[in-house]
Amino acid sequence: MNKIIAFIILCCVTFNAWSAEKIINFPKPGMAQDYKWLTQNLRCQKCANQSLADSESGLASDLRQKVYDLVVSGKNRKEVVSFLSTRFGDRVTYDPPFKRETYFLWLAPVIILLIMIFVMIRAMRSKKPTTENKEPALSNTDQQKLEQLLNSASKSDSNQDPKS
User: Could you tell me the CATH number of the domain that includes residue 55?
Assistant: First the structure.
């Protein structure tokens, strides 16, 4: 029984050690804020949609260390982003700059919206009125029968006594 309790305690201690955050010391307080902002706003190149702070990959760990080294050496946020962008391309940021290589990325939503509006307008204009509300055309014989019925009905109405 003592071995089971010791095993459970050992597991609890081990799980806490795995979940502990790595404590990073900085020479100046503002550096910690820059490091945190950079690791949350730079994309892991292996994970693609995770920030450096969230990713557990080896590459993200190396990049966090590089960001730490750059921040401690006195580089500001812009310089660190520029450094990583030259090595990994604009994909390292979640907000790529507007330049020739990224025109389509930025303009694609607007282009798609305009195309959809154009297609909707064309579809609405080309839609022909339905014939549901129109009366169907009668053949000549049907037209003659209809006229005879209407004439006979009007004669019978005129022959009736107006007092009735």
Answer: 1.10.8.640
